[in-house]
Amino acid sequence: MNIDYSYKQPKTLLNKGTGFLAGYSHSLNPYTGCTFGCSYCYVRKMPVSLFRGKEWGTWLDIKKDSAALLHKELLREKKKGPVTIFMSSSTDPYQPAEYKEEITRSLLEVMAEVQPDFLLVQTRSPLVKRDIDLLQKLGNRVRVSMTVETDLDEIRTHFSPSAPPISARIQTLRKLREAGIPTQVAIAPVLPSSEAFPELLRPVVDLVCIDDFFMGDGAHGRRTQQLGIQDKYEELGYSDWYHPEAYQVVARRMRELYPEQQVRISQEGFAPF
Ligand code: SF4
Q1: CA nearest 77: which of 30, 29, 25?
Q2: Where would I find the Radical SAM core domain in this sequence (predicted)?
């Protein structure tokens, strides 16, 4: 697929945490757009995508020279109170362009020096392990949240064919854990998974966050409905899984292996600290 790449000079980087991210003082997006282009991505139905006039996943704005701006904004915001950052809410900070562009890495270099009170790194990419050296400098002020929506890679390919395979994400969680980086898995959205899912996760991660379309798309599932995601469940013969109660099946399975307090639901699972 041809991707339309542009370089943009951002005016601001730290945006106020609102809505689902109300527990955070700020969100931070190193890119605008996301070339993983997941079919279920609710950002497709947000103004940033709707007003672009191009299919979500086919374009990417690279926020160049971001490090100096973040440095300035961090110093300013830290004077006002605790700074807790969610990176990222409407892109993946470790998407393919990051291999070459290193925008996210440059932001982590700044945050290793001018440390926020807390940083949550939300990704589905094995590239995050490149930055273990910087994440280690943040100690307990950072947590890497790795999206693993299912243990079944054929299901993953149906919904997000351009995203990294599940096995690569599990290996990455293992590497992060070995390096002492606090981690969690985000089963978000809830895609159909097998009974073996908890056993796949248990050796590599202590915290499990479960979030679905109905709790997590910012519109009680309406954005997801507009995307026609229910049809994809039906095509696969998994229509029972497209239901507001389906996450409880996964939660129950996880709680057979994990202590109750280590399985968190929706917003609580993404909360800082
Ligand atoms: S990786 Fe995240 S931001 Fe990117 S398309 Fe998929 S769901 Fe959307």
Answers
A1: 25
A2: 20-268
Find the 226 Cα to ligand 1 centroid distance in Å.
Answer: 17
Can you give the residue range of the structural domain that contains 226? 4-270
What is the rounded CA–CA span in Å between residue 266 and residue 245? Answer: 13
Residues 6+ apart with CB under 8 A from 197: 150, 151, 250, 253, 254
Instruction: Give the Å distance between the CA of 100 and the centre of ligand 1.
Output: 19
**Domain CATH for 58:** 3.80.30.30
Domains of the chain: total: 1
- Which of 34, 39, 159 to probe ligand 1 with, by most ligand atoms within 8 A of CB? 34
pLDDT over 90 (residue 22): no
93 phi and psi angles, rounded to 5 deg: -65, -15
Mind listing the pLDDT tens digit for each residue in 124-144? 999 999 999 999 999 999 999
258 CB-near residues (< 8 Å, 6+ apart)? 198, 202, 206, 208
Per-residue confidence (pLDDT) for residue 273, from 0 to 100: 82
d(CA 55, CA 50): 9
**Cis peptide preceding 189, ω within 30 of 0:** yes
Task: Give 216's pLDDT tier (boundaries 50, 70, 90).
Answer: confident
Q: What is the pLDDT of residue 19?
A: 87
- Helix axis angle for 103-113 and 66-80, nearest 10°, is 40
Q: Are 47 and 67 in contact (CB under 8 A)?
A: no
* Residue 84 burial by Cβ neighbours in a 10 Å radius (0-12, 13-18, 19+): buried
Q: Is the pTM of this model over 0.90?
A: yes
